[in-house]
Design goal:
The chain is mostly helical. The protein has helices spanning about 1-5, 15-40, 45-50, 55-80, 80-90, 95, 100-115, 115-120, 135-150, 155-165, 170-205, 210-255, 265-280, 300-310, 320-335.
Length: about 350
C-alpha cells in the first residue's frame, strides 16, 4: 500500500502545496460562494448588495471566506492519504462486500477480455485475480505495488520506507511532482462531488430555479468525473516512477544495510529473507517463506471450457456507471419535486 507508506511526500511545501491543496480549496470556496449568492437571487442582486453594504459586513464576508479557505485547505492537506485510499477501494466491510464486489467483478471481466499490452501498467497480472481492486485507480497503484514483489521478491510496503531516504534528490523531485499531480486531481474530484451534492441540496432547499439546480448537480458531477479521469493518467505515471525506483536504486539499500547480494545467491531469495527479518524479526540465515507461486496461464482449451461453464456475460456495470445513474436520478427527482 504505497498510499500508506508515502505520506511524507504529501507534506512538501512551496509550489507543490499550492498546487495540490490551496488551488483546489480556493476554487471550491469561490464556487461555493457563488452557489450561495445565486441561491439568494440573481448575481446582479448579490453584486448590488455587496456594493451598497456596510464596511463591517464586507469585512465579515471576507473574513468568513478566508476562514473557510483555511479550514478546507487544512482538512484537505491532512486527508490526502485517506483520499487516495478511498479512491483505491480500501473501504469498510459493508461497502467492500457490496459495491466493492461489483467493481472487482467488472474489472475481472475487463482484464479477461483485454490484451496484455493494455493491462500491463493498469492492472495486476492475470495470474493474481484476487489482487484486483474495485476501482481503476486502485488497480493502477496495485500493479505498481506488486511489481517489485513479482520481479525481485521485494515486499514494497516494508522496503519502501527504507529505500525512500536513499533516493537521489532529482528523482525525489520527479516522484514528488507525480504524486502532487495525482493528489491535486483527486482533491479536485472530491471537492467537485461535495460541491455538486451540497450545492444542489442547498439550491433545492431554497427553491432555486431548476436550471441552476441541474447545472450545479450535473456540472459538478461532470467536473468530478473529468478530474478523476485525469487522476487515472497521473496514477499510471506515478506507478511507473515507483517501478523505476526499485529497478535502479534497490542496490543502494542493500549497500546501506551492509548485505550486498553474493555472486552465488539468488536476489529474490535474498530479498525475501530481508523482508522476513524486517517484518517478523526472523534472522536472515533462516529459510524464507516462499512467495505465493504464480498460477500458469490457462491453455486455450481450458479457457474455452471455463468460459463455457460461466453464464453469458452481458453488460457489466462499473462504479462509474452506478455513480452516473445516481446523479442522473437525483437530478430528475430534484427537478420534478423542486420549484422555480
Amino acid at each position: 500500500m504505497f498510499s500508506a507508506t508515502l505520506g511524507e511526500l504529501s507534506g512538501v511545501a512551496g509550489r507543490r502545496s499550492v498546487r495540490g491543496v490551496l488551488l483546489p480549496s480556493l476554487v471550491f470556496c469561490c464556487l461555493a460562494l457563488l452557489v450561495v449568492a445565486t441561491g439568494r437571487g440573481s448575481p446582479q442582486d448579490a453584486l448590488h448588495a455587496w456594493r451598497h453594504g456596510s464596511w463591517e459586513s464586507k469585512v465579515l464576508v471576507v473574513a468568513g471566506f478566508l476562514l473557510a479557505l483555511v479550514c478546507v485547505a487544512t482538512a484537505l492537506g491532512s486527508a490526502q492519504t485517506a483520499l487516495i485510499r478511498l479512491a483505491e477501494g480500501y473501504w469498510s466491510p459493508p461497502l467492500r462486500r457490496t459495491i466493492g464486489r461489483l467493481g472487482r467483478g467488472h474489472h475481472r471481466r475487463l482484464v479477461r477480455r483485454a490484451d496484455d499490452a493494455s493491462t500491463h501498467d493498469r492492472y495486476p497480472p492475470r495470474t493474481r485475480p484476487d489482487d484486483l481492486m474495485p476501482t481503476r485507480l486502485g488497480n493502477a497503484l496495485k500493479a505498481a505495488e506488486l511489481y517489485p514483489r513479482l520481479r525481485y521478491g521485494i515486499d514494497a510496503a516494508l522496503v519502501w520506507p527504507r529505500l525512500h531516504p536513499l533516493l537521489p534528490d532529482t528523482f525525489l523531485a520527479t516522484l514528488g511532482a507525480a504524486r502532487t499531480g495525482l493528489t491535486a486531481l483527486l482533491a479536485s474530484a472530491f471537492l467537485s462531488v461535495v460541491l455538486a451534492v451540497g450545492g444542489a441540496g442547498y439550491l433545492w432547499a431554497v427553491d432555486a430555479p431548476t436550471r441552476l439546480f441541474l447545472l450545479c448537480l450535473w456540472g459538478g458531477g461532470l467536473a468530478g468525473w473529468l478530474c478523476y479521469r485525469g487522476a487515472l493518467l497521473r496514477a499510471v505515471a506515478y506507478g511507473q516512477h515507483l517501478r523505476v525506483a526499485f529497478d535502479l536504486y534497490r542496490g543502494h539499500l542493500l549497500d546501506a544495510v551492509g548485505r550486498p547480494v553474493g555472486d552465488g545467491e539468488d536476489e529474490r531469495l535474498h530479498w525475501q529473507r530481508l523482508c522476513l527479518f524486517w517484518h517478523r524479526g526472523v534472522l536472515p540465515h533462516h529459510a524464507a517463506t516462499p512467495d505465493r507461486p504464480a498460477q500458469p496461464s490457462p491453455t486455450p482449451a481450458a479457457a474455452a471450457a471455463a468460459a463455457a461453464d460461466r453464464p453469458p456475460s452481458g453488460f457489466s456495470p462499473s462504479i462509474s456507471h452506478l455513480t452516473a445513474a445516481v446523479f442522473a436520478a437525483a437530478g430528475l427527482a430534484g427537478a420534478l419535486t423542486g420549484g422555480g
